[in-house]
Amino acid sequence: RSRPSNASPNFVYPWSCTTRRVATMAHGTTPDGILGKVIGLISLFAVLPVFSLSMPLSFMFGSPSCWGFGEKYRPSFSYVWSRFMTETVMGCRLKLVGNRTLYKDGPCVYLSNHRAWADFFIDMYLTEGRAFILSRFAVAYVFPFFMLPAMWVGAVFAFQRGKAGAHDELNNSLDAHFKAYTDFSGFVVYPEGTRNTKPKALPLKRGLIKYTHSRGMDVQVIIGGHKEHVLSEQRGSASWGVEIPVGYSEVVSSKSFAGDF
Q: Are 254 and 219 in contact (CB under 8 A)?
């Protein structure tokens, strides 16, 4: 297996850029009103089987191809899968807000906003497949055909939420995951701890931020808007061609804040 490199010519992203505040964004092919709700629900039922089987489908039909075993460069499977879902299946268009881009120069924890099921593939795509996703183990019961292969290749780290006194166990499991799956140099965490589609952030959970600090890892915030219009169980809707405004923060070094925890 090989991790994406910064200079790889195979990485092409559908970015459009702006340095101004994004006021409005297209919400894809689903219109507003009652008709839009009906179309969104039908689209959701149509997409869910594809999402459930997206791991094997992306292995067969994803791009860049994972089949080039004789080639010097092969992309990480997590990148191929996330690109397959984001671009091919859902037709998302990414709009870069500002001029900062993904941090790739070392181990990093990416703090993202949790808005919907679409977060799984969009946020992994925004890290170019360099980061695995933390998810509650309960998701495996909803999407077993997706979660089990994703956990097997290390793309998803599943944990049990609310288990008392399990912080050290979780931290050790994360350390072991990094050692076992060397494709990944970081992970995506949702520090609010729950879905939030409001314009303001919820209070942040400290557990994994404390883990990041204890391991001296760098931190970058990645905010993606309108992900709930792509694929959302809460809205009961899915839509193709949604424009996603994306902003990357400056990188924060945990080592610069010694003694904060």
A: yes
Distance CA(84)–CA(88), nearest Å, equals 5
Strand 237-238 and strand 218-224: the pairing is unpaired
Token duo for residue 22: 């994004």
Question: How do residues 215-244 score in pLDDT, each as one tens digit?
Answer: 889 999 999 999 999 999 889 999 999 999
Separation of alpha carbons 83 and 95, rounded Å: 15
Supply the DSSP symbol for 242: B
Q: Which residues share a beta bridge with 244?
A: 94
CA-CA distance, 73 to 50, in Å (whole number)? 28
Q: Are 166 and 183 in contact (CB under 8 A)?
A: no
Identify the DSSP state of 100.
Answer: -
* pTM (two decimals): 0.84
φ/ψ region of 130 (left if φ > 0, alpha if ψ in -120 to 50, else beta) reads: alpha
Q: In the chain, what is the straight-line distance between the N-terminal and C-terminal CA atoms, in Å?
A: 36
CB 188, CB 112: distance < 8 Å: yes
